[in-house]
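EI: anyone free to look at a 404-residue chain?
SC: sure, send it
EI:
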Amino acid sequence: MVGAGQLARMTAQAAIGLGVEFRVLAESASDSAAQVCAGTVIGDYKSAGDLLAFGSGCDVVTFDHEHVPGVHLAVLEGLRPVRPCRTALRFTQDKRSMRERLSLLSAKGVIAARCPKYQPVASMDEVLGFARSRARPRGSDAVGWSTGDVWPVVLKATSGGYDGKGVWICEDRDAAAEVLSHRIDLIAEELVPFDAELAVLVARSPSGQGAAYPVVQTIQQDGICREVIAPAPGLDPDLAAVAQHVGLTIAAELGVTGLLAVELFQVGGELLVNELAMRPHNCGHWTIDAAVTSQFEQHLRAVLDLPLGSPEPMAAHAVMVNVLGGDDADLHGRLPHVQAADPGARVHLYGKPVRPGRKVGHVTVVGDNLAELRERAGRAATYLSLGTDNGHPAAAEHEPQPGP
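SC: here you go
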């Protein structure tokens, strides 16, 4: 696995049970996975020499991030199976290409979900042109049209963004001008007034076998996923089935091998595709403790072309809350208090240096009472982060907010 973050760390744990020799290409010995993986190679994934030396010693190469340069992957594919392949990864590396391909699949009726309305932009005139195009024509009730105001407009970097980075919600012309001043490739998008943010995680093997996990609801805080509820509460079963079909179809159409996470906006009975990730994903962390097959084992099964495991949940509900870094780095000092207060809470810490707002672990609880599970998971995660349970994410109902 190229990359040695927490996703690689948890994949290494899954490899043990499968008897798979697992190696990671880490940037340093202090990386999350490098701390626990015997097969650690130190190198730079942006260096063709380091990448090819690492990959040539493996039977199959996969990734815990999407940032490896495509030109290097083209050479590596001549040496070893690379899963997912560079032509699939391109659609996670370039948001414009992803929007173009998925919009075409939607227009042809191949997938029952559209993308938010978008346009490549490189100047203020183009941003203003897009903003004005969002004003609702008289008599139109189409989803996504504004009531006359052309702002805000979402600007997104076409590459490199994650966890809210590379995304700007511009309330006016001045805010857009500030983003344009960075001189990066951008697309403009409509701000979607969603009812819920959903995600569907699917797996696909080289032989074409597919599996879909239950659709989950994700709750964001400052652009970072804070909470995942599995399955998504109150979601119409027919719409959930549509979302799973969308995920499996996208995986097949793009030639994905391994996991594919599709982040969605739900607007009434309509689904809009927001983002793609071709690797284990935050929306699937709950599967470690609450699904027959964890997403990490499933990814290994898929890239090794082994029969896929069951994605079925083992409890009525699972709630996962990310542990975000606070001002006090002593997570382990607070861990015994969480374990004593709630022995049923499953805590996963990543061994990463603590910085405010950084994902440094997660907590999962499972059971039958969803409100109680949200309270427990939120309380435990917040105490680990802050040393207090005040202001944990399940303390109040989350009102849906428009998002990028």
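EI: Confidence is low (pLDDT under 50) at residues 137-147, 394-404.
SC: 👍
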